[in-house]
Amino acid sequence: MIYELRIYTTIPGRMPNLLARFENHTLKIWEKHGIKQVGFWTTLVGPDANDLTYMLAWESLADRETKWNKFFADPEWQQAKAMSEADGPINAKVACSFLTPTKFSAIQ
Questions:
Q1: Tens of pLDDT, residues 33-67
Q2: What are the angstrom distances between the C-alpha of 33 and each of 48, 59, 87, 104?
Q3: Could you tell me whether strands 51-58 and 2-10 are parallel, antiparallel, or unpaired per DSSP bridges?
């Protein structure tokens, strides 16, 4: 199992748009493609209150590539993304890391 850590830094004032897109569209489309989310977090205390951090679980990098490519090409996702950004972009920056758990990690 590998985990993908993604951090979206939104343009100030655009966090509600990003949260709505995930809640109303993205999660349903992920479910259709077998993409498993571990959790989502907003920053309560820290250097950037404009960050949305989330983690996805994958069987392998090949599993991620297959499912992510199908998701990204899905017309429903492309429409949801376009609609949510109709009045301008939401994210200023997206960071992505792939993680493997240590043998002593509570999450495997």
A1: 999 999 999 999 988 899 999 999 999 999 999 99
A2: 31, 14, 28, 31
A3: antiparallel
